[in-house]
Write a structure and sequence with these properties.
D-Amino Acid Oxidase, Chain A, domain 2; about 30% helix; globular; alpha+beta; 3 domains; five-stranded antiparallel β-sheet; about 20% strand; FAD/NAD(P)-binding domain; disordered C terminus; 22 strands
């Protein structure tokens, strides 16, 4: 039995942000994640936006935390060596009603402290984005909006937390919360019993599956959003993130660049029964295309290389971040939908404050390391730097993924690093290998070989994303034999 001061359930961006914040203190902390990789839920299936706060309502918890968290990202992404771009956002008006509503939002946002925002008329808008629909009457321009890779941000938070002593256990599903006299004492999991003085539920879509959370009356609904990603060479290029006027349930179907140089459109918003379903549908994809073309009419479907979906955890109209009412020692971080990625650093700060109020003794470390080592990225180097790197380590001169120019060295380190990749999707999200035009058609077999070489994973056991997503059924020799070819001696 292992004993911890704090157990965090869920290794998405919220759980990892909490872990990193608490790792500043002399505490024994564990993060338990049911999936094989961290960040496999909503944290890898979203738009990757750092919202400016234009539409944030400070009377809500989600709005207040959005406004407080946005300014933190410049320092935070520098410390964690995560690509981040304040590319700015544009919220477009297509009718006089839209324009009046957005001008009202503009004044409210200024009152709320959102910096640099202003109204652009049609001519100013088209000067900023030439491909925008010329029927737009104008737009709110918010220069503090940004884009980030949500998975790399989650990974960096986790790796930095692990470097500061936090224990991460993946493939560790929590089955039951154990209480004594109404207080948390630990959890039963796939990997045994873990004793903990405090339990933070940051389990996303699974937050209501724990027995003591159900007693709180919290119910999670899944809201699916579908996305399309364009090839990096797609000729229609957009610099800013483009929004329509938001609705009560969604910020709308958007058009945005990514930090990796692709164009992405989506999401739609559809409540679904099966919260584990990550299907894309003909109807959903059609909605996304129609919505995106309203913003940028020149878009077509000729260079789409990927379709995917992500499910958001909805538990009402606002975040639920508070101590449980029925179980002492349990803290809830549930219903974290948009702008949860943006708010994650302040959610972590709020959880820390709650733990302090509940009596957890927090002594700051003298040796806390705020910085994550910068990953080696040959593609970001000039010719001389790259030549010097290859002279020291020839693996950085061997291209494995031709579409994205990703080397053997990068993939090797993604597997061997703390909290290293154990699936094909894990490699993809850490390095961008298999994310280009051919979608692993060329590099897929090599990725399987490297998982075997550096993680000892048999190719027959290797999976796309864990669970039942195995990629191979037979070795080639076994396949020929089963096909009746009788080539037993090849």
């Amino acid at each position: 039995m292992q004993k911890f001061d704090v157990i965090i359930v869920g290794a998405g961006v919220v759980g990892c942000a909490i872990a990193r914040e608490l790792s500043r203190y002399r505490l024994r902390i564990a993060v338990l994640e049911k999936e094989k990789e961290i960040g496999q839920g909503t944290s890898k299936g979203n738009t990757g936006l750092i919202h400016s706060g234009v539409n944030a309502d400070p009377s809500t918890l989600s709005g207040r935390l959005n406004l407080e968290a946005n300014p933190l990202f410049d320092q935070l992404t520098d410390e964690l060596a995560v690509p981040f771009d304040r590319n700015g956002s544009l919220v477009l008006a297509f009718s006089s009603e839209d324009r009046q509503a957005l001008i009202n939002s503009l004044e409210e946002a200024r009152t709320n402290g959102v910096q640099g925002i202003r109204w652009l008329n049609r001519e100013q808008l088209l000067e900023k984005e030439k491909k925008v629909n010329p029927e737009a009457l104008g737009a709110i321009y918010a220069p503090r909006g940004g884009i980030i890779c949500p998975f790399e941000f989650t990974l960096a938070l986790a790796q930095n937390a692990a470097g500061n002593g936090v224990v991460f256990l993946t493939g560790c599903r929590v089955h039951k919360t154990i209480t004594e006299e109404g207080r948390v004492v630990g959890v039963e999991t796939d990997q045994g019993f873990f004793q903990g003085d405090y339990l933070v539920n940051a389990a996303g879509l699974s937050a209501d599956e724990m027995n003591c959370v159900r007693e709180e009356g919290i119910r999670i609904k899944a809201r699916r959003g579908q996305y399309l990603v364009y090839d990096r060479d797609y000729p229609v290029q957009i610099k800013h993130t483009l929004f329509p006027r938001p609705t009560p349930v969604s910020k709308g179907i958007i058009v945005t660049p990514t930090v990796h140089g692709n164009l992405m459109i989506g999401p739609d918003a559809e409540e679904i029964e099966d919260r584990s379903s990550l299907e894309t549908t003909r109807e959903g994809i059609s909605r996304v295309i129609v919505g995106a073309k309203k913003l940028v009419p020149a878009l077509n479907t000729s260079d789409i290389i990927r379709m995917f979906s992500g499910n958001r955890a909805v538990a009402g109209d606002d975040f639920i971040i508070r101590p449980a009412r029925r179980t002492r020692g349990l803290i809830l971080a549930a219903g974290i939908q948009s702008p949860g990625l943006t708010a994650a650093p302040r959610i972590a700060g709020l959880i820390k404050e709650i733990l302090q109020d509940l009596g957890l003794n927090m002594e700051e470390k003298d040796d806390f390391q705020a910085r994550r080592p910068v990953p080696v990225r040959p593609g970001n180097m000039d010719y001389k730097e790259r030549a010097e790197l290859i002279s020291r380590d020839s693996d950085y001169g061997q291209i494995i993924c031709r579409c994205e120019g990703i080397t053997r060295g990068e993939i090797r380190e993604a597997i061997r690093a703390p909290l290293g990749a154990r699936t094909i999707d894990g490699i993809k999200r850490r390095t961008q290998a298999a994310s280009g035009r051919c979608q692993s058609g060329f590099c897929g077999p090599r990725l399987l070989e490297l998982l075997q070489e550096y993680a000892g994973i048999d190719p027959l056991q290797a999976s796309l994303r864990g669970g039942s997503s195995q990629l191979l059924k037979y070795h080639s020799k076994e396949l020929l034999l089963k096909a009746g070819e009788g080539l037993a001696d090849i």
